[in-house]
Amino acid sequence: MILVKPLDVILNLVRNIITIDGPGGVGKGTLAFSLAEKLNWNVLDSGLIYRLIGYLSLEGRLETEQEIIQFLNKSKIQLLTNFKEGICEIELNGKVLAEELRNENIASRASEIAKEAEIRKAIIKIQRNAYDPKKGLIADGRDMGTMIFPEAALKVFLQASPEVRAERRANQLKEKGMSVIMHDLLELIKQRDEEDMNRKISPLKPAKGSLIIDTTNMSIKDVEHEVMENFKIL
Ligand code: DC
């Protein structure tokens, strides 16, 4: 009898990790949570770690690269999946932070900080710790498929026009009662794309063999369907 091994086993890939990379506002977080609920897995919103540093830096609590690295090495930082709210939270030395990290100024500062190779290195362990082999993980970010979980059997890359992404982000902010200047939001999104795609270390790009989906004219249900179809045939 000839035993045919599945492709993921032959290639030594891990079946219970799905990575979702793509630019800001493309729908990574929404997709991550709808897949995680379906599969009963955890979610890693890796941008939250960069946002935490951006937040502390804007508050003047962290200044130099050295201070940031020391902070990352000595703090207890844990990513939490809050299914009830459909968001990830970050626990820093026992204090849970979430909403205070979700604004565009913090995102822009996070993107600047994310260019530094040594800071990225210090974050790798925190990200990989979010994977519990017994549970499964949807990891969303910029380099989840290329650098952090290259062993994931399914790597998704989402893209959409900057205008559509700015509109989606504006709707999210308005729902939270924040006022939005569309032109400024679009400029911030384009500037962040530029920085995230053109940095030397771990730039935003599809991992080899990614499932690339342009979500510009797609509903979240359609995107989820396409990902699940690809997951099933693994
Ligand atoms: O996903 P987000 O919008 O929360 O990310 C904020 C910034 O953090 C993003 O513009 C670049 C950086 N980031 C990164 O460099 N690598 C990741 N895996 C996630 C985020």
In short:
The protein has ten helices and eight strands.
Topology:
Elements: H1 7-10, E1 14-21, H2 28-39, E2 42-45, H3 47-58, H4 65-74, E3 77-82, E4 87-92, E5 95-97, H5 104-113, H6 117-129, E6 137-141, H7 144-148, E7 152-159, H8 162-175, H9 182-198, E8 211-214, H10 220-232
Helix pairs in contact: 2-10, 3-5, 4-6, 5-9, 8-9
The chain binds 2'-deoxycytidine-5'-monophosphate.
Describe this structure in words.
With 234 residues, the protein is of the alpha/beta class. It has a single domain (14-228), classed as P-loop containing nucleotide triphosphate hydrolases (Rossmann fold), CATH 3.40.50. Helices cover 47% and strands 19% of the residues. It has ten helices and eight strands. The strands form two sheets. It has a five-stranded parallel β-sheet. Helix 4 packs parallel to helix 6 and helix 5 (104-113) packs parallel to helix 9 (182-198). It binds 2'-deoxycytidine-5'-monophosphate (DC).
Quickly count the domains.
1
Mean pLDDT: 93
CATH topology: Rossmann fold
Quick one: biggest sheet?
5 strands, parallel
How many angstroms does the end-to-end distance come to? 23 Å
Secondary-structure content class: alpha/beta
* CATH architectural grouping: 3-Layer(aba) Sandwich
Can you write the helix and strand succession as a string?
HEHEHHEEEHHEHEHHEH
Q: What would you give as the CATH superfamily?
A: P-loop containing nucleotide triphosphate hydrolases
In which range does the helix fraction lie?
40-55%
Low-confidence stretches: none
* Rg: 18 Å
Count of helical stretches: 10
Number of strands: 8
| Main sheet: strand order | 2-6-1-7-8
Tell me the overall shape: globular
Please report which band the strand proportion falls in: under 5%, 5-15%, 15-25%, 25-35%, 35-45% or over 45%.
15-25%
CATH class: Alpha Beta
Query: What ligands are attached or bound here?
Result: 2'-deoxycytidine-5'-monophosphate
